[in-house]
Amino acid sequence: MCFAIHHPNGTIISHDEYLQIKQSAEILITRISQLIIADPCTDSSTRAQTKTFIKDHFKEAFNKAILKLEAEHKLLHLCLAHWKADKVLGQGFMRQKDAEARSTAKNHAHATHVPMSNPTGT
After folding, report:
1. Which residue of 20, 42, 60, 62 lies most exposed, with the fewest beta carbons within 10 A?
2. 25: Cβ–Cβ under 8 A, 6 or more apart, which residues?
């Protein structure tokens, strides 16, 4: 995504600029995730935090996040239909979901780990 974001003169943003945008998106994603957790209408089985789920069930919060991200990073505003901010947030939700899946798998593997018997027999 960092190659899709350009300055008004057409130059691609730096890696540091992209990291700042990503960090802002992560903060907004955390806020939306907290709304989902606090919502009594979404149980753990329906809390699939994909962009589609969030846009369907938390549309207002998602739209506010897009506008806030664009306000903080004017370069994201230089496109039609908010697609850059939408894409940055969507990628952030995917990273969060992947991190949660890795954490769950790691915890599951740790919980089901059976130590090997002593190979020396002592």
Report:
1. 60
2. 69, 88, 89, 91, 92
Residue ranges of alpha helices (H) inside the chain are 15-38, 51-57, 59-72, 83-112
Distance CA 37, CA 104 (A): 17
Do 39 and 55 touch, CB atoms closer than 8 A?
A: no
For residues 3 and 88, the answer to whether their CB atoms sit within 8 Å is no
47-103 per-position pLDDT tens digit? 566 788 888 889 999 999 999 999 999 999 887 889 999 999 999 988 888 887 787
Place of tokens 């962009």: 51
